[in-house]
Specification:
The complex is a heterodimer of chains A (552) and B (191).
Chain A: H1 3-13, E1 18-21, H2 28-34, E2 41-44, H3 48-62, E3 66-70, H4 74-77, H5 80-88, E4 93-99, H6 115-118, E5 125-128, H7 135-147, E6 153-159, H8 160-164, H9 185-197, E7 201-205, H10 213-223, E8 227-229, E9 244-246, H11 254-262, E10 265-269, H12 275-278, E11 289-294, E12 308-311, H13 314-322, H14 331-341, H15 352-361, E13 368-371, H16 375-383, E14 392-393, H17 404-414, E15 420-425, H18 426-429, H19 436-442, E16 446-452, H20 457-466, H21 483-489, E17 494-497, H22 500-512, E18 517-522, H23 547-551
Parallel strand pairs in A: 1-2, 1-3, 3-4, 4-6, 5-6, 7-8, 7-10, 8-9, 10-11, 11-12, 13-14, 13-15, 15-16, 16-18, 17-18
Helix pairs in contact in A: 1-2, 1-7, 3-5, 3-17, 10-13, 11-14, 15-16, 15-22
Chain B: E1 3-11, H1 16-26, E2 30-38, E3 44-52, H2 55-67, E4 71-76, E5 82-93, H3 97-109, E6 113-117, E7 121-128, H4 130-140, E8 145-150, E9 154-157
Antiparallel strand pairs in B: 1-3, 1-4, 2-3, 5-7, 5-8, 5-9, 6-7
The chains are: A alpha/beta (552), B alpha+beta (191).
Chain lengths: 552, 191
């Protein structure tokens, strides 16, 4: 047995049997060992970035560690965007890279890159393996680091000769999830006292509460709390519940942003007060006392002054806060909120908003929706109604264009019983569209909708609003491919809709097509996403509706 | 700007210094000095870092440090009594016998040791706290300082070793004695 075999055995021991990867010179021993391991399913993507995002999609849909594999040098550097994305969205990701042989390290050898150095700031931790016998221990530790506490990406770099070295060590069983300790009862009581005293409370739930959906829902209902889910938290609290106010932040709902601005108590659980959520931080929740619950102690007090910072598991804290709840009379507060909830953006009869609203309306409760980044992403976040966690896959922190298609592919393989739909823009799609080949090869039934407005729409919107319509390098319509012919070239069936009735007519056959399917939705070029909090403004200064539409 | 002293006990892994200095650079924390050396325990190194910034910045730096996998423990010396020292080597120009005598007198006042004697220069070793070292350098400046090298501050928490079983480098609260301050307000989080 050599190092490569030992690594694969260790992956199997940890239940990590799907690998998204791309071969190359420095990982030939690993790919050779794969041929004798039918337990492991290797999914060949067409670019290492695709492998990283697919592994992220897998991890986001399941909560388990996603695995990607690449060769040294350019293979490894192509993973970096995915690692950075996973770092900012706290996705448990394990990246395995090959490297040049040990005696060549540091000599600028062919396809050598100092990937442990390069990925230092975008991984939770990384390892350069120097002996084959270390592999099982390092893998066990890496999986524990990736999935423990606040999850994140971990990279293991294995020189080629370590893969080939004879293995004489022993294997390590998976480690139990490290405990973070519980919040003392004294602090829970303090939080409850704040809840009892609050007349305008809000609960803000982020992606860190992904495993606490049940407890969060109990907490909200027990105290009758208006509940807001961040972009990463969509689905953790059921959208059908009348307590739900939508998403906060730059493109958040009127109800979410206004209630945060007026609240006297804000309870943030598993969220990190990102600038896209808070707007100008000095104007964020100016009247509120803030209780912040997070598993990562360094988040407490990092950006906002918290009155009570509780380090712990979201599920544990939420469950204990729900226990013995004494719901207060919040009648006047709810009156106000109901008025805000009534203020919704009116979408034109045909446009990206209408189209995405229609597509989201076709989704069943168990469907997974992945998006790319930009206007379509914000519209989907506003319009989709998720009732469960891990049904919404999007690149939040890093905002990675090109994320949608490969992430959907990974999720579809992770959850074969769920239908997976991806909504992408014409810009972002072209950043990772080579993964159509992966869909085809494994017949992965992703339903891909391309919202084609011929623009890099979000940047165009900013240029329209803040740069006097000086459109700079955002029009891509003249050179977009014919997406239907492109799909055909990959052997994937496609549909096209250019108005609302065509969309209604094509969507059923697109969604019910058994394998991968592409739908191009051609929408008017210039549209903007509202509500919007301009950069540097406070949430209370939000523009509630399209000024153009309001005038008209 | 205020400064605070942190001791960081780390696994002696490759790149551990890069991880720590990279964290400080990336997150915009200022390091005034950083000293690092091995400990009596194999595979474990210890750093003393002087961090500049207000309490919020330094608390954040400390919490980010605690997240690093190779960091075993961070000791915040604000929370416990400590001793700290700095060592400096100073090469001073000599321009005649009178000066030599005068310089040696000053050095005696500072308990500075002469570690190298040249015809035209003396090298002194001074140990002490930061203030003493700075004062020594200022005293020598008029004679002409040719070179200096300072180690940066190094610190240990106080406490009689006899009362501590043995300093084991395990994560968790310090086993040393004499805490002088209650936990800072920002570390109100329960652990």
């Amino acid at each position: 047995m050599n190092g490569a075999d030992a690594l694969l055995q260790s992956l199997i021991d940890h239940g990590l049997t799907t690998i998204f990867g791309y071969p190359g010179g420095a990982v030939i021993p690993l790919y050779d060992a794969l041929t004798a391991r039918p337990e492991i399913r290797h999914v060949l993507t067409r670019h290492e970035q695709g492998a990283a995002h697919a592994a992220e999609g897998w991890a986001k849909a399941t909560g388990k560690v996603g695995v990607c594999l690449a060769t040294s040098g350019p293979g490894a550097t192509n993973l970096v965007t995915g690692l950075a994305d996973a770092m900012l969205d706290s996705v448990p990701l394990l990246a395995i890279t090959g490297n040049v042989a040990r005696h060549l390290l540091g000599t600028d050898a062919f396809q050598e890159a100092d990937i442990t150095g390069i990925t230092l700031p975008v991984t939770k931790h990384n390892y350069l393996v120097r002996r084959a016998d270390d592999l099982p221990r390092i893998l066990a530790e890496a999986v524990s680091v990736a999935s423990g506490g606040r999850p994140g990406p971990v990279l293991i770099d294995i020189p080629k000769d370590v893969q080939l070295e004879a293995f004489t060590g022993s294997f390590c069983p998976p480690r139990p999830r490290p405990s973070v300790g519980t919040v003392s009862e004294e602090y829970i009581e303090q939080a409850k006292a704040l809840l009892r005293g609050a007349r305008r409370p809000v609960l803000v739930v982020g992606g860190g509460a992904q495993e606490a959906s049940f407890e969060i829902t109990r907490l909200a209902r027990a105290w009758n709390l208006p509940t807001i889910t961040t972009l990463m938290g969509l689905g953790i609290f059921p959208a059908a519940d009348p307590l739900w106010l939508g998403m906060p932040g730059m493109h958040g709902s009127v109800a979410a942003n206004r209630s945060i601005s007026e609240s006297d108590l804000l309870i943030g659980v598993g969220m990190r007060f990102d600038d896209r959520v808070t707007g100008r931080i000095s104007g964020f929740a100016p009247k509120a006392q803030i209780i912040h619950v997070d598993i990562d102690a360094s988040e407490l007090g990092k950006l906002v002054r918290t009155h009570l910072g509780l380090r712990g598991e979201a599920s544990d804290v939420a469950a204990r806060l729900a226990e013995g709840a004494e719901p207060q009379n919040l009648h006047p507060w709810w009156e106000k909120i109901r008025e805000w909830k009534g203020r919704q953006v009116a979408h034109a009869a045909w446009g990206a908003g209408q189209a995405i609203g229609f597509l989201c309306g076709q989704l069943a409760e168990n469907d997974i929706l992945a998006t790319d980044v930009g206007q379509h992403q914000m519209l989907a976040a506003q319009l989709a109604r998720f009732q469960r966690p891990r049904r919404w896959l999007t690149s939040g922190g890093l905002g990675t264009m090109g994320f949608g298609l490969p992430a959907a592919l990974g999720a579809a393989l992770a959850a074969p019983d769920c239908r997976t739909v991806a909504i992408v823009g014409d810009g972002g799609f072209q950043m990772t569209m080579q993964e159509l080949a992966t869909l085809k090869r494994y017949d992965i039934p992703v339903k891909l909708a391309i919202l084609n407005n011929s623009y890099l729409g979000m940047v165009r919107q900013w240029q329209e609003m803040f740069n006097d319509r000086r459109y700079s390098e955002v029009y891509i319509g003249e050179s977009n491919p014919d997406f239907g012919i492109l799909a055909k070239a990959y052997g994937i069936p496609s549909w096209r809709a250019t108005d609302a009735s065509e969309l209604a007519g094509t969507v059923p056959s697109w969604l019910s097509c058994p394998g991968p399917a592409l739908l191009e939705v051609v929408v008017p070029n210039e549209h903007a996403v509202f509500p919007m909090v301009p950069q540097g403004a406070a949430l209370s200064e939000m523009i509630e509706d399209d000024p153009a539409a309001v005038q008209a | 700007m205020s400064e605070r002293l942190l001791s960081v006990i780390v696994q002696d892994e490759p790149r551990v210094l890069t991880r720590i200095s990279g964290l400080f650079a990336r997150r915009n924390f200022n390091i005034k000095s950083l000293s690092v050396g091995r400990t009596e325990q194999r595979g474990v190194s210890r750093m003393t870092i002087v961090v500049e910034g207000d309490d919020r910045v330094v608390d954040q730096a400390r919490q980010q440090l605690e997240k690093l996998v190779d960091v075993i423990r961070v000791i915040d010396h604000r929370e416990e009594k400590y001793v700290d020292r700095e060592l400096v080597l100073v090469k001073v120009r000599i321009e005649g016998p009178d000066q030599r005598v005068e310089i040696r007198h000053i050095a005696e006042d500072f308990r500075a040791r002469i570690v190298d004697v040249g015809r035209r220069a003396l090298v002194f070793e001074v140990t002490g706290d930061e203030g003493k070292i700075t004062a020594f350098i200022e005293q020598m400046r008029p004679f002409g300082i040719l070179e200096t090298m300072r180690t940066g501050r190094i610190a240990l928490t106080r406490g009689s070793n006899a009362e501590i079983q043995s300093q084991r480098y395990a994560p968790g609260p310090s086993q040393t004695l004499e805490p002088i301050l209650p936990p800072s307000p920002s570390s109100k989080e329960s652990v």
